[in-house]
Design a protein that fits this description.
The structure is a single chain. The protein is of the alpha/beta class. It has 2 domains: 3-280, 3-Layer(aba) Sandwich (UDP-N-acetylmuramoyl-L-alanine:D-glutamate ligase), CATH 3.40.1190.10; 288-429, Alpha-Beta Complex (Protein-Tyrosine Phosphatase, Chain A), CATH 3.90.190.20. It contains 16 helices and 17 strands. The protein has helices at residues 3-11, 24-32, 52-65, 94-108, 115-129, 167-170, 174-181, 198-210, 250-265, 271-280, 294-298, 313-329, 346-351, 374-383, 394-408, 420-429; strands spanning 43-47, 70-73, 85-87, 90-91, 134-138, 156-159, 191-193, 215-217, 222-227, 230-235, 238-243, 288-290, 304-307, 334-338, 357-362, 388-390, 413-417. Strand 9 and strand 10 form a beta hairpin. Helix 2 packs parallel to helix 5 (115-129). The protein is globular and about 65 Å long.
Length: 431
């Protein structure tokens, strides 16, 4: 266990709840640290239910293609905590992370504060101490009371598609969730709205209007679609003929378009940087093709193996569309290997795959106390109308898929899905 891991273990004990949505504690600590949030480079602040991470990745790739130095804050991490903090292009070092966490722990003086709040304060302190041209900051949960919402004047605010998730914290009505996400909008700062359903879009527009924040909305002010193997983007400034994003799926065209709109509204990048960013963007566990490693070694010969961390019905619909598009290009039976947390709408998640997935093998997410058991998840898959079977672990699940594929004499397409925590475990175990 490294030095930062030891400190992170201690920080988990500073508050009885993992999540407690208020801003008082992080504002207090930032004041004690000398207000580093007031010394940040220009910020793009990103909230939403789905597509936040991908949109941040597109923003980072395009800004870096312009030759700019970019900080990035994202969560959760997949394998190592260091993934959450990128300083001017590089992940934070172990020595700096440990020192920052210890400094924040010392200044906090044992006062109650959640894990996300104190680690966000540490990230902000790091961003303030390192020079960069931009900071791309992803909201952790919600928006209005998220620990990242301590920014006074972001260069731009992005709200990606809003759907039902985290109902225990944000509410069960889509309008209420949208209002929480819209809480990051600041007076006068441009707001870029990704593809939205009518209700959340209206909520976001009303909030922007109250604050006098100029709006650029998908489907109204900018558009994007796939045409002849290319991405076509259009806004008030004209049309761009672009390569398809490196990230797979129709939803990634919308995410890329939202990032492009934000960077064009703020006049941050030129067209050549947009094109290069689409070609070079990276974001693990979002429709990621796995091509080697121990897990691939036991997969059926010739099988396609994909990994995605989507974990709610809206995200499942996007991934299901991407799988359907792959099926149109090359027919292969689809098998799912899935693990999910107990607080997620697993029936709604799997319903998106009805008529598409041949079979679902359920597993318990290793080492996660909040995971549904493989048996309980099997029941929910069946309730969603799909064939299923439980497995002991990922290896057993892959062996089950291999056996079914041999019986059917098919070369399968396999999607490992249901949770970012599962995705992180897969990436770690598969090297």
């Amino acid at each position: 266990m490294g030095g930062s891991d030891i400190v992170l273990e201690r920080l988990l004990k500073l508050h009885p709840k993992k999540i407690d949505l208020v801003l008082d504690r992080v504002q207090r600590l930032l004041a004690q640290l000398g207000h580093p949030e007031k010394r940040l480079p220009p910020v793009i602040h990103v909230a939403g239910t789905n597509g936040k991470g991908s949109t941040c990745a597109f923003c980072r790739a395009m800004l870096e293609a312009q030759g700019l130095k970019v900080h990035v804050y994202s969560s959760p991490h997949l394998v190592f905590f260091h993934e959450r903090i990128r300083l001017a292009g590089d992940l934070i070092t172990e020595s700096e992370l440990a020192a920052l966490l210890e400094e924040c722990e010392r200044v906090n003086g044992g006062a109650p504060i959640t894990f996300f709040e104190i680690t966000t304060a540490a990230a902000i302190l790091a961003f303030a101490r390192h020079k960069a041209d931009a900071l791309v900051m992803e909201v952790g949960l919600g928006g209005r009371y998220d620990a990242t919402n301590v920014l006074e004047h972001p260069r731009a605010t992005i709200i990606t598609p809003v759907g039902l998730d985290h109902a225990e914290f944000l509410g069960t009505e889509i309008a209420d969730i949208a209002a929480e996400k819209a809480g990051i909008i600041k007076r006068g700062s441009p707001v870029i709205i990704g593809a939205q359903e009518d209700v959340p879009r209206d909520v976001i527009l009303r909030r922007a209007d109250v604050l006098g924040a100029p709006v650029t909305a998908f489907g109204q002010d900018f558009f994007a679609h796939q045409e002849h193997g290319r991405m076509v983007y259009q806004d008030m400034d004209g049309l761009l003929d672009l390569p398809l994003p490196r990230l797979v799926g129709r939803h990634q065209i919308e995410n890329a378009a939202t990032a492009i709109a934000a960077l064009r509204v703020t006049d941050w990048v030129k067209d050549a940087a947009i094109e290069k960013g689409l070609r070079t963007v990276e974001w693990p566990a979002r429709m990621q093709r796995l091509t080697h490693g121990p897990l691939i070694d036991i997969a059926p010969k010739g099988a396609e193996v994909w990994l995605d961390g989507g974990h709610n019905p809206h995200g499942a619909s996007a991934v299901a569309r991407a799988m359907a598009d792959l099926e149109e290009r090359a027919e292969k039976p689809l098998y799912l290997i899935a693990g999910m947390l107990a607080n997620k709408d697993s029936v709604g998640f799997f319903s998106a795959f009805r008529g598409l997935a041949r079979h679902v093998v359920t597993i318990t997410i290793p080492g996660n106390e909040n995971s549904l058991g493989a048996g309980a998840l099997y029941d929910r898959v069946r309730a969603a109308g799909l064939e299923a079977s439980p497995a002991e672990d990922v290896e057993d699940a892959m062996l089950q898929v291999s056996a079914m594929a041999r019986m059917d004499e098919d070369t399968p397409r396999i999607l490992i899905c249901g949770s970012l925590y599962l995705a992180g475990t897969i990436l770690a175990e598969n090297g």
